[in-house]
Amino acid sequence: MNDLGIEPGRVLEGRRDLGLETRFVGKRVHYLGSVASTNATARGLVDAGELDGTVVLADEQAEGRGRSGRSWFSPSGLGVWASIIVRPELDAKRLAGLGIATAVAIADALGREFGIDARVKWPNDILGGGRKLGGILVEAGQVAGDRIESAVVGIGINVAIGRDEFPEELRTAATSLATLAGRPIGRLPVLRAALSAFEGVYERYAAEGAASVRGRWREISTTLGRVIEVETAGRSIVGTVTDLSPEGALVIQAPDGRSVEVWHGDVVPIR
Question: Which of 56, 167, 169, 219 could covalently link to 38 via disulfide, CB atoms 3.0 to 4.6 Å apart?
C-alpha cells in the first residue's frame, strides 16, 4: 500500500476515499499508477463526456509536460501530479488567466498549510526559496467558436523529492515541499489543499476573471517590479513589469515609456 492508502487503478469518490472537503472538484478521481501525462489522460476523458470537476491523479508521469512542451520531472510517489476537468463556458481569451489564478490560490494554500513562503512567477510557476516548487498547465479541450466549453487544468507539485533525487540539471532550479518545510510531508494533505484551493478560485474566476486574484498576485509575485526580457510571438520585449491586467496579461513598461501587454511567453529576469 502506498502513502495514499489506496492502490492505483480505481475510480475514487473524493470525499469518501480521499477525505476531500470540496463540493464538485474531485467528486470522481481516476487514480492511476503511471501515465504519459495526466493532462493527456484527462483530455481523453473530456471527449468521453466525463463530468465537470473530475480529477485524474497519477503516482508517476512518464512524459509529464510543462509550458511550451517542456518536460516535467514526475517521479513515482514523490509529488502531486493531477489534472482537473472543467467545463467553464468561458471566452477563449480568458483561459490563460485561469492558470495564473490557480497558481496564486495554490501558492497561498501551500503557504498556509505547510508554513512555507510560496510565491508565483508569471504566468504559472509556484516558487519556494526562489526555486520551482510547482506549476500549472491549462489546456483547452472542446472549443465552440470563441467559447471554451471544456479545459484541463494540470497541477504539478514537488512534495517529497530530495535535492539529490532531481536530475542534475534541475538541482539548483527546483525544490520540494519537504525540503522547504524541513520535515516529511505526504501527498494526501497536499492534494486536499490544492483541490480545495482550486475549487474556490475557479468559482471566483468564473465570475470575476483574473481581477479576482490581481491584488494577491501583486503581493506574492516574483516578477512585479523587475526588469525582464520576455520572448513572445517570435519577438523579444525588454521592460519593467508594472502590473497584471484584469484579464491576466503581464503589463510591461518598455524603455520608451510604452505600456505593453504580454499574454504568453518565457520571462527571464534581468534585474
Answer: 56
- CATH number where 257 lies: 2.30.30.100
- Give me the chain's average pLDDT, please: 92
Q: φ and ψ at 253, to 5 degrees?
A: -95, 115
How far apart (Å, rounded) are the C-alpha atoms in residues 131 and 128? 5
DSSP annotation of 168 reads G
Task: List b or e across 135-163, with b for residues whose CB sees 16 or more CB atoms inside 10 angstroms.
Answer: bbbbbebeeeeeebebbbbbbbbbbbbee
Provide φ and ψ at 229, rounded to 5°. Answer: -120, 130
Domain tally for the chain?
A: 2
Contact status, residue 17 vs residue 6, Cβ threshold 8 Å: yes
Where a domain ends, among 201, 219, 237? 219
- SS3 of 49-60: the string is CCCCCCEEEEEE
Q: What is the pTM of this model?
A: 0.94
Here the cell at position 205 is 474566476
Shared domain for 85 and 153, answered yes or no, is: yes
pLDDT in tens, 92-130: 777 889 999 999 999 999 999 999 999 999 999 999 999
Whether 180 maps to a domain, the answer reads: yes
Query: What CATH number has the domain bearing residue 186?
Result: 3.30.930.10
Residue 238 — very low, low, confident or very high, per pLDDT cuts 50/70/90? Answer: very high
Looking at the fold, whether 262 and 205 belong to one and the same domain comes out as no
Both 154 and 254 in one domain: the answer is no
Q: E strands of 13-117, at which residues?
A: 29-35, 55-61, 79-86, 90-91
Give the span between the Cα atoms of 118 and 136, in whole angstroms.
Answer: 14
